[in-house]
Amino acid sequence: EDKVGSRSFQPSPVYVPSKIAKLHNGEVQDYPPTQ
C-alpha cells in the first residue's frame, strides 16, 4: 500500500489531510478528525 510512501502518486483528496494528520500525531486517524 502506497498511502504515505508515494508523494508523486496523488490519491483521493480525503487521503491528503488524513496523511498529514497521521504524520502530525504519529498514529492513524479517521478523516475528518474529531475535534
Helix-strand blueprint:
Layout: H1 15-25
Q: In a few lines, what is going on in this structure?
A:
By secondary structure, the protein is an all-alpha fold. It is built from one helix and no strands.
Specify the overall morphology: globular
| Average of pLDDT | 59
Helix content: 25-40%
Number of helices: 1
Descriptive account of the structure:
Residues 1-35 are annotated as: Disordered. The chain is an all-alpha fold and 35 residues long. The chain contains 1 helix and no strands. It has one helix at residues 15-25.
Keywords:
single chain, 35 residues, mainly alpha, 1 helix
